[in-house]
Design goal:
One of its GO terms (biological process) is mitophagy. The chain has helices at 3-8, 25-35, 37-40, 68-79, 82-92, 134-151, 179-189, 193-202; strands spanning 12-20, 44-53, 58-65, 96-106, 121-129, 155-164, 169-176, 206-216. It has 223 residues and is α+β, with helices and mostly antiparallel strands. It has 2 domains: 12-104, Alpha-Beta Plaits, CATH 3.30.70.100; 106-216, Alpha-Beta Plaits (2-Layer Sandwich), CATH 3.30.70. The longest helix is centred in the middle third of the chain and has 18 residues, at 134-151. The protein is globular. It starts with a helix and ends in a 7-residue tail after the last strand.
């Protein structure tokens, strides 16, 4: 989690979270599935999910950019894309209650992964760490993540550290075959002395944690 490798690599990820009006969720998802190819023509979509457990009427999507100039060019092109603006943006905006975005980097010791097969579920875990940055809590956090990976019950997709938005926030994406498979794996992991020790060391730096179970949308590259 050292800052050096992040600054050398200009690639970053924009995490966009939308709260959808409860009565409009079905309509919003249908619009995404129908028209989102207009958006992905401009830049790379990593994943697009809807919340199933831990949040309601919420969608999360992640975009990859080469650098900030790349994002600026993409946003300019989208603003001038009449099809995108007319077919999706104009009718979709009334369905959205709130929008939030963050800029994050993959931590240096993690590469973006893919699930071994389609059809599973994703767990999005947000950790709010104590102020001080990765120099304070990075080593312990990495050890806790590796302890869970080593149990073999879950697949790590990515670990992101915020650069814009609420700082000292870490988002971790896991993939599991099913919610029941995830539950059984976690119960076993929490009886593993190595996991217990690593987590106990890491939580010294933890302020809060939120877990959300996500279902990929039809347009999501990560399914």
């Amino acid at each position: 989690l050292a800052t050096g490798p992040r600054q050398i690599n200009s690639i970053f990820y924009e995490i966009r979270t939308y709260d959808i009006k409860p009565s409009k969720m079905k309509e919003f998802v249908e619009m995404v599935n129908k028209y989102f190819h207009l958006r992905t023509a401009h830049s790379e979509l990593v994943g697009f999910w809807s919340a199933e457990l831990g949040a309601m009427n919420k969608v999360v999507h992640v975009w990859k950019y080469d650098n900030f100039a790349h994002r600026t060019a993409v946003r300019h092109a989208l603003a001038n894309d009449k099809d995108w603006q007319g077919k999706f943006i104009s009718p979709a905006l009334p369905l959205i209650e709130k929008q939030h975005n963050e800029v994050a980097y993959l931590v240096p010791w993690c590469q973006l992964g893919k699930p071994p097969k389609e059809g599973g579920v994703y767990e999005w875990v947000t950790f709010q760490m104590k102020p001080g940055g990765p120099a304070l809590w990075g080593e312990a956090f990495q050890a806790a993540i590796n302890a869970h990976i080593n149990t073999g019950y879950t697949k790590l997709i990515g670990v992101f550290h915020t650069e814009y938005g609420l700082l000292n926030t870490v988002h971790v994406i896991w993939w599991n075959e099913s919610p029941d498979h995830r539950a059984a794996g976690r119960h076993s992991a929490h009886e593993d002395a190595r996991v217990v020790a690593a987590v106990r060391d890491s939580v010294r730096f933890l302020e809060s944690q939120q877990n959300v179970l996500l279902i990929p949308l039809q347009c999501s590259p990560l399914k």
